Amino acid sequence: AKLPARRHEAINQLQKINAVSPGNNALQNALAQLLFASGRRDEGFAVLKQMAKSSTGRSAASAIWYQQIKDLPVSDASVKALQDYLTQFSEGDSVSAARAQLSEQQKQLADPAFRARSQGIAAVNAGEGGKAIAQLQQAVSARQDDSEAVGALGQAYSQRGDRARAVAQFEKALAMAPHSSSRDKWESLLKVNRYWLLIQQGDAALKANNLAQAERFYQQARAVDNTDSYAVLGLGDVAMARKDNAAAERYYQQTLRMDSGNTNAVRGLANLYRQQSPQKAAAFIASLSASQRRSIDDIERSLENDRLAQQAETLESEGKWAQAAELHRRRLALDPGSVWVTYRLSRDLWQAGQHAQADAQMRSLAQQKPNDPEQVYAYGLYLSGSDRDRAALAHLNTLPTSQWNSNIQELAGRLQSNQVLESANRLRDSGKEREAEALLRQQPPSTRIALTLADWAQQRGDNAAARAAYDAVLAREPGNVDAMLGRVEIDIAQGDNAAARAQLAALPASQITSINMQRRVALAQLQLGDITAAARTFNRITPQAKAQPPSMESAMVLRDAAAFQAQTGEPQRALETYKEAMVAAAITPVRPLDNDTFTRLTRNDEKDDWLKRGVRSDAAELYRQQDLNVTLAHDYWGSSGTGGYSDLKAHTTMLQVDAPWSDGRAFFRTDMVNMDVGRFSTDADGKYDNNWGTCTLEKCSGHRSQADTGASVAVGWQNETWRWDIGTTPMGFNVVDVVGGVSYSDDIGPLGYTLNAHRRPISSSLLAFGGQKDASSNTGTKWGGVRANGGGVSLSYDKGEANGVWASLSGDQLSGKNVEDNWRVRWMTGYYYKVINENNRRVTVGLNNMIWHYDKDLSGYSLGQGGYYSPQEYLSFAVPVMWRQRTENWSWELGGSVSWSHSRNRTMPRYPLMNLIPADYQEDARDQTNGGGSSQGFGYTARALIERRVTANWFVGTAVDIQQAKDYTPSHLLLYVRYSAAGWQGDMDLPPQPLVPYADW
């Protein structure tokens, strides 16, 4: 029992003995004393009650009991303790003393001031000083010289944390009773409260960012008590606020040397190292003890969360949505119920195609936090980001509008505006722009709608209306960057580059924050010729767009960046950017990794909006422009006529190689041509007198079979604007020439036009194309090889709607070897109506008209004639019907027409060039003519063209063309095979595009 460490064991043993042998006064006396010494008062009094039952132990029990209560501070508790004692004992010296003490205390407690003092001191001693302040203030007011009450009031303030008042009371108590027995206690408490008061003042100054004052308070606290760590901790916090990392680190480390359990110092160092690098913070945390590490487990979780978030962001930028989602799952485990981690997880799951899981995550979050504005906003944002605006708006409305924050209000306004704009855009896309504008003008005035109307006006070329709309926006919002950019774009469109540059320079850079605005700036810089500035802008915003989740804004940035890269000579980089644009436009959740996947994604989709359509078509156009193609084709055609000159059977084998060059396509072409016009019919003498050469002047003999073979070569290049080629007619023919052409194409609003200049062969007969040689029995003269030298203009109007119109006007000088010169003017025009107008199927019906005029009729085959159809009047009308369609691997065109034509030919000399005629025959030659006349009649055409994709690299096709008209009946059969070096799984051409003989260009 005398060993403190074994006192509990002694008490247990004595209690066991007392239970077995009750009535042992000595044992009970010892047990009671031990219980009181151990603070187990209730058990001690219970033992004394046992002793009081014994006559031999009662006196000792009374003495011990009274000894335990007589020195209690005067209070209700002390009075009750005396009363309990007197109910147990009725005689003896202790009883008399207790009665006197009880009487005295009851009198004292009848005094309110004394009662307040005693109750206050009792509360302070019980650690409940906060409840004692009013009572002690009452006691001090009653007796201002009561130093004990003043000291107790200081303790009460200290226990409540009111350091300033505690310091004042302790200083007052020491001044009142410098020799009080409580002096040491008061001095100790005064020091403690002065220290913590300075710490509090330092903390307040630090919070107010008054760093110098905070530092002074912490230094003063350190002077008061240089053994406590919190003053040093405060100095570390001041250094941290000053970004003096070295000093902060020293103070925090000193704090931990003074008190390894100071978790604030551990936290300070962790945050300091975290600012320097996550790796350094992780290394520091790993070096901590288990208890220290537990104290900053939130920082450790946050570091892990940041690390996972960064890894997820990298995966997202690479389009690896499923892997990024798994990292967000781990983040959610670290921070369950986090609104924005759940949002990012759901967004990535959606992009990975796991739509049900994504929706389930957001629904679960909504169930956990139904009335949380952040949840409501994040869920609405998620639904909006997956093109579910109506559902997003409905979810926002689950929260009373009185609880909406500014984010929800802004999102709701945008979603409501989106619905109106969506309806308006549908009207506009269907050709009802006026109705769309009327719908928008019915809405409450808004900058967004005004900018939309301005943009529409700008797109249709109504720059005046667009400028007026932008000016109206700027009148309301002088700093509206969208409107300012709109005016820049209009100035560029109107050719006022100086004004555009000035306005572009005046744009406030601080407000051009969105990547879409920066995209428009880059396009303006490009159009103004500042390629370097445009490149800088695109290089800055392209990585940002890749890092963002799919959106219209990021897709437009990547689309235009790809177009810029292609334009500035980086086509392969542009193709990679188009792959990113496909992800951003939500065409695919994952970036395509091979050509087959990429090109398959360029196929059109009826459900696409304008942006997806544009990304697909632009990517397809660039990919095909960069592809290497080799095409081999064979064309057979012929027309019936007279053997020897017009009974034509022709074979053309074509080989063409197309390859990228600059921003267009270069080609090499060779055609192997064989033309056979049959055999002359002879008389009994083996001679023939056909209307050919000079045979009508002197019968011809020899060379009954008329055929020729030759090979032409050509090279050329074309892009969206220019096209040129230069080549030869078949080498090996009687007449060989250099031919070619150049054309320029552009548009004026919806009207497209092409200007061309050319030198082309007339290939409708062997004579016109390659020339023939008069019979050696006569002159043996070569003649023919007619070439058309001239130019023309073509016009077209097609806005993609149901109706279209085209027209062409050309004029040519026609000349050949030993052929009379001629000239012609041709006008052709047509209207067509799209009965079916779908992406992959089109049925059209139309009306075409042709008017031709040739100066001379040189359609004969005699020497000096050209052998080509050349009426002085030609008029025709045709009604064509065409069905074009494509599937995944097939494309075809089936069509035909019925026509009516009228033609008139003048009577012409059979031999127009007398210098070619031998003198002996000239008189006869002058008398011979080819009779003129007119004719009219009906005709028809039928055409079938089909192409099949065999693999991504190989395509085969065939075509049949049958024509039957007055004086003109050619028919064609074509077979071809095409090789794509890169492979193509995109849309099949509609219609198929077989090679056309070079002679027919």
UniProtKB/TrEMBL annotation:
GO terms for cellular component: outer membrane. Keywords: Cellulose biosynthesis, Repeat, Signal, TPR repeat. Residues 646-980 form the Cellulose synthase operon C C-terminal domain. InterPro entries: BCSC_C, TPR-like_helical_dom_sf, TPR_rpt. Pathway: Glycan metabolism; bacterial cellulose biosynthesis. Signal peptide: none annotated. GO terms for biological process: cellulose biosynthetic process. It comes from the Bacteria. Gene3D superfamilies: Tetratricopeptide repeat domain. Transmembrane segments: none annotated. Pfam families: BCSC_C (PF05420), TPR_16 (PF13432), TPR_19 (PF14559). The keyword Repeat applies. PROSITE patterns: TPR (PS50005). TPR repeats lie at residues 147-180. The keyword Signal applies. Required for maximal bacterial cellulose synthesis. PANTHER family: CELL DIVISION CYCLE 16,23,27, CELL DIVISION CYCLE PROTEIN 27 HOMOLOG. This is Cellulose biosynthesis protein BcsC.
